[in-house]
Amino acid sequence: MYIYQVAGGPSKTASLPGAKTCNLPQIAETMKLNLVLESNQQNWSLEPNRDYVVGRGSDCEICLADASSLSDRHLKFSFEAETKTWHIYNLDSSNSTSIGDLQIADRAINSSTTIVLGGEIVMVATPINSELAEESFAANARQAKSLLGRFNLPKWQQGLIAGGSVLVLAVGVPKIFDWASDFNTLHPIYDENKFGYINRWGVAIEPQFNAATQFSEGLAAVLVGQKWGYINEAGDMVINPQFEPPRGRGSFEGFRGFSEGLALVNVGNKWGYINKKGEFAINPQFDGGSKFSEGLAAVSVKGEWGYIDKSGKFVINPQFSYGDRFSDGLAGVRVGGKRFGFIDPKGKFVINPQFDSGSDFSEGLAAVSVDGKWGYVDKKGKFAINPQFDRAYSFSEGLARVRVGNKWGYVDPGGKIVINPQFDISDYHNEEGSFSEGLAAVSIDRKLGYINKKGEFAIPREFDYAGEFRNGLAQVSKEGQNFYINKKGKAVWKQTEKR
């Protein structure tokens, strides 16, 4: 987390979550925001439970003599190791900082509103209007330049970066705030026959891969030639390409990303799990597998599915004809290729096999089918919404997509239809058509747009394909050309050539 200095007398504190080891972030400035981050390659080793004074004076623990915007004794800070709390004291009554029209002096520094600038940068600016801050950074991020400092982080893995008129506290995990990490999330693109990645303000990793997947836990699987490896968010190959493309019955969905620190990979048509160093935590030995979820992963051996823990030990022996991931403490399984029920993490049936089919639990309910009709059960197996739909999908953001006849609509957890069935059957993937970030992609007359939770079109129907929104962006296509749009429907990236 990065925290701007605050002005005005009493100490300001911010409680921070525990940090993990990560690469030190790069600090950049944007000219329009009047951030004076003067180049200074000093090294500081910071200790907990100790006061540090920042200023131009030679008696300061962190002396930036050439930082013209600092006073001799500008401010003081300390880190209380026991409570993991920062204490910030203003030592100069003239201190004041603003970003454009966003006045941030005299504001608490533990604001939940954050801004990301650059590959691993989080700035807590306490803006009055987060959308205004977002637009300002997005519009000017390409002007970002200038690095500031290197740091030797002690065991508590937190450091300080100071310069110009800002104080910045750097924490070992750049993605402490969801809003902040979401703002800088990378999205795969396909351009000129290669895959790369963009963020909200343009191309972040140039197209160079034969295939690319979504980032998950800071890494993304990419295909180089005929082998898969993993890159970080800076585009560095951190796990060399060495894994084979999925063949046969393996789960490609599971292969795509890290989950709970492990990723499913294929070697010799057998599946195993690697850690983020590329080392096998569980050797390739399974015929198929899924991502880890709630500490367990479904794997198949000779056509039967069971569940392993992160050591690779079977917690639930292979016995099912299919097994879903655990969600809300339960996993859907199929017995004998026929009936579908739900088990707990010990393998005990909580909801006996009695359904024709079913989905994961989401928001306390699971979609299940009986005699060709779909409804929703709670975690005790009781119908919360009786079977009545021709198809039903999981709840997302309080609404679930259901089909009545040949039209799709949306129901709430009480079974009330809140958006009447009116949308066409389309070539939906499971997640498309579900609400994400307040919007859902729907189709009428073979053109897709996005509706809000009132069923109103927030983005008009004009696309041939429309994916779900992820961290503020959605992939769409129109007349053979791929785009990424923001939630206002504005294109933030366009493919240079039509496919």
Compact summary:
With 499 residues, the protein is mostly beta strands. It has 3 helices and 47 strands.
Descriptors:
mainly beta; five-stranded mixed beta sheet; Tumour Suppressor Smad4; 4% helix; disordered N terminus
**How far from one another are the termini?**
41 Å
**Mean pLDDT score:** 71
Strand residue percentage:
over 45%
CATH topology of the domain at 31-129: Tumour Suppressor Smad4
Oligomer: single chain
How many H/I helices? 3
The helix fraction, in percent, is: under 10%
> Quick one: biggest sheet?
5 strands, mixed
What best-fitting shape do the alpha-carbon axes yield?
globular
Report on the architecture of this protein.
The chain is mainly β and 499 residues long. 4% of the residues lie in helices and 45% in strands. The protein contains 3 helices and 47 strands. The strands form 14 sheets. The chain has a 5-stranded mixed β-sheet, with no helix packed on it.
Detail the topology: elements first, then pairings.
Blueprint: E1 12-15, E2 43-45, E3 52-55, E4 62-63, E5 75-80, E6 85-90, E7 98-99, E8 102-103, E9 115-116, E10 122-123, H1 130-140, E11 150-152, E12 158-163, E13 166-171, H2 178-183, E14 187-191, E15 194-199, E16 202-209, E17 211-212, E18 220-224, E19 227-231, E20 237-243, H3 252-255, E21 258-259, E22 262-267, E23 270-274, E24 280-286, E25 288-289, E26 297-301, E27 304-308, E28 314-320, E29 322-327, E30 330-335, E31 339-343, E32 349-355, E33 357-358, E34 366-370, E35 373-377, E36 383-389, E37 391-396, E38 399-404, E39 407-411, E40 417-424, E41 440-444, E42 447-451, E43 457-463, E44 465-466, E45 474-478, E46 481-485, E47 491-494
Parallel strand pairs: 2-11, 3-4
Antiparallel strand pairs: 1-6, 3-5, 5-6, 7-8, 9-10, 12-13, 14-15, 15-16, 17-18, 18-19, 19-20, 21-22, 22-23, 23-24, 25-26, 26-27, 27-28, 29-30, 30-31, 31-32, 33-34, 34-35, 35-36, 37-38, 38-39, 39-40, 41-42, 42-43, 44-45, 45-46, 46-47
